[in-house]
Amino acid sequence: MNDRLVSIASQFALEGEILDITPVGEGFINDTYRIHTVGSAPDYILQRKNGNIFKDVPAMMENIRKVTEHIRRKVIAAGGDPDREVMRVIPTRTGRLCHRDEGGEHWAATLFIDDTVTYDRADSPALARMGGIGIGHFQSQLADFDEPLAETIPGFHDIRHRFAQWDRTLSLDAAGRCREAAEEIGWIEARRDEMLAFWRLVEEGVIPRHVTHNDTKISNFLFDRQGNVLCVIDLDTVMNSTSLNDFGDAIRTYANTGAEDDRDLARVGMSMEFFTAYTDGYLSQHARELSEAERAYLAFSARYITYEQVLRFLMDYLDGDTYYKIRSADHNLVRTRAQYRLLRSMEEQYGAMCEAVRELNAKYNR
Ligand code: GN1
Ligand code: MG
Predict the structure, then answer these.
(1) Measured in angstroms, how far is the CA atom of residue 359 from the centroid of ligand 2?
(2) Domain of 211: which CATH number?
(3) Distance set, CA 74 to CA 39, 79, 85, 138, 237 (Å)
(4) 174 and 212 share a domain?
(5) Are 146 and 87 in contact (CB under 8 A)?
(6) Mean pLDDT over all residues of the chain?
(7) Is residue 117 included in any domain, yes or no?
(8) Which long-range contacts (CB under 8 A, 24 or more apart) does 99-103 make?
(9) 316: Cβ below 6 Å to ligand 1?
(10) Atom of ligand 1 nearest to the CA of 220
(11) pLDDT (tens digit, 9 = 90+) per residue, 155-205?
């Protein structure tokens, strides 16, 4: 066992004795471990939060505490299981929400939810529908949440802010890669105005802001063995934004026929069948709470967030890979191209996407 990890884990108010600590998952940002305990005590998740990205981990953990406590009350009121249907933050023995080690790194712990299944892609429309239910339910549980939340990553899904970063990246050309990526850069520039036009609606309040998850890819959902969605995890980015982004971001994984970083672009595309199933699940939970403007932009939100992801992967490539973990020198470029292929597929099928959203809205607003 790794002594350093044991000493960090021991800072938290865990029940039971630590048996082992093993790495889990493949997040692009944090390092995640499972703390196995002896006997009947529960296991825990231990995470090193990436301080490069999260500048104020205590504020982030405070956001997570507020949101999970709100959801826990809803789960209990609905007769659900509060240890399985929502994450539980485990404080340190001194009552803090995170531990700062000697190196200045921040760590946090949550209760491990046992006997669950996670996915990297949806293998059936039924699973995509379940994912939609997961996000729709999450947003419904939080519909009456009104506590203030810290903006832990400024401008996270704000494309105006992203363009400011992007313009800086292009002018610095820190890794000397701008010339070879001229074509990819053109993909971003060609869509700048339509993306800003959408975001203006959020800025002007035409599209409302709510508490949102902001990172709804499929691997951030826990399912039980019967195939029901239990909850969304990885709440690091809970902040105020438009709930459209949570709807749209999930489609990048639930309805993608390929991988997020597929080198074989022929495999990548948006499946209309999976998109429709996902949207059906989402609206089955949340249709009545959406405003007119939100309904009108549901389909577009998938394009918006996929575009933003193309921009972020490409920007990181041009910056010299300073943000996302990479597994090869061109990983961010591969991700850029695969997400762009997905974006193109959405653009090609946009009419059908809007039609499906219209029909499902009618079904659940009857
Ligand atoms: C990151 O940490 P992870 O892998 O769940 C990223 C998301 C991206 C995603 C792309 C804080 O999520 O915004 O959409 O990678 N999270 C952060 O796969 O930047
Ligand atoms: Mg994450």
Answers:
(1) 32
(2) 3.90.1200.10
(3) 30, 9, 10, 10, 21
(4) yes
(5) no
(6) 96
(7) no
(8) 99/8, 99/11, 99/12, 101/8
(9) no
(10) 5
(11) 999 999 999 999 999 999 999 999 999 999 999 999 999 999 999 999 999
